Amino acid sequence: MTNFNNKTILVTGGTGSFGQMFITKALKLNVKKVIVFSRDELKQYEMAQEYTDSRMRFFIGDVRDKDRLYRAFDGVDYVVHAAALKHVEACEYNPFEAVKTNINGAQNIVEAAIDRGVKKVIALSTDKAASPINLYGATKLASDKLFVAANSYAGDKNTSFAVVRYGNVVGSRGSVVPFFEKIKETGTIPITDERMTRFWITLDQGVQFVIDSFNRMHGGEIFVPKIPSMKVTDLAEAIAPECKMEFIGIRPGEKLHEAMITEDDARRTLDMGGYYIIQPEFPWWKNELCHGGKSLEDGFSYVSDTNEEWLSVEELRELVKISKGDK
């Protein structure tokens, strides 16, 4: 475990599903303070009713506002950057807004962290950033590049940056699980394409992977966990076996299958056993920094439809129950 003892941690987008789970775990690690940085006053108010620990702080602000970040980062040791506009369709139809938050916001995080003496920053990425075909993925790819390059941009300042990239999170807000749960009352589940596959990770696994990555990082890495794939039709069967599936066609910016490591990325990727590290292309970077890592074979890619591990309908049903808090 990374040493969170007596450290101050700030989470952008801290009122979201990831932020709340991360904060729950962080408070158990003897931190000095946890700061929730987000722009939604109501969500912060509601969260404050639940998280009454004296180490909690709530800071209203937007990652687009660099001055506000400078104030918020005062005395902060670690930052988890989870704030983003992440819905594919919304980003397609509001492209300037996606760029302002996901790209300009990332630059603001980098500059504020360096200038305010933050020690470590981990930014959350997405499988959609690998070979992106939609604006959300493109903005997150740009964001990933900014955070990797930030390690050089920092100069002689002692701030390091890394990225964590993973797939769909079971039951997160606005995701397919709550959508299927809601619409199953109609008796029909809309599926864009029967061939569609996705990577799948639980919220708890995603949060723990980020915590572990703080301990592993040197600066510049993109960490990718090894996680199972699932068929969207199997998910529909797991959630609503009584419903009819209606195939409606792929939406703007949607892929049949998602990738987390492209064939080009694989040339500088190491297999670390339970996860991969896409290494930065820095002159000072050496493979030896990732002890025990193995190079990948030529032509390797990590894509949801060619994954070696798959979730069955029964396993998906159990994960959905857990995400809802059911026994």
Question: Care to describe what's here?
Answer:
- There is one protein chain.
- With 327 residues, the protein is α/β, with parallel strands linked by helices.
- It has one domain: Rossmann fold (3-Layer(aba) Sandwich), CATH 3.40.50.
- Helix content is 36%, strand content 20%.
- It contains eleven helices and 17 strands.
- It has helices at residues 17-26, 41-50, 66-72, 88-93, 95-115, 135-153, 176-183, 203-216, 232-239, 263-266, 313-323, and strands at 8-12, 33-38, 56-60, 78-81, 120-124, 160-164, 168-169, 188-191, 197-201, 222-225, 229-231, 244-247, 259-261, 269-271, 275-278, 294-295, 302-303.
- The strands form four sheets. A ten-stranded mixed beta sheet has the order 3-2-1-4-5-6-10-15-14-16, sandwiched between helices.
- Helix 3 (66-72) runs parallel beside helix 5 and helix 5 packs parallel to helix 6.
- The longest helix has 21 residues, at 95-115.
- The two termini are 29 Å apart.
- The relative contact order is 0.12.
- The mean pLDDT is 93.
Biggest sheet character: 10 strands, mixed
CATH class identity: Alpha Beta
Shape: globular
Structural domain count: 1
* Strand line-up across the major sheet: 3-2-1-4-5-6-10-15-14-16
What is the radius of gyration computed over CA atoms, rounded to a whole number of angstroms? 20 Å
| Mean pLDDT, all residues | 93
| CATH homologous superfamily (4th level) name | NAD(P)-binding Rossmann-like Domain
Short structural description:
Helix content is 36%, strand content 20%. With 327 residues, it is an alpha/beta fold.
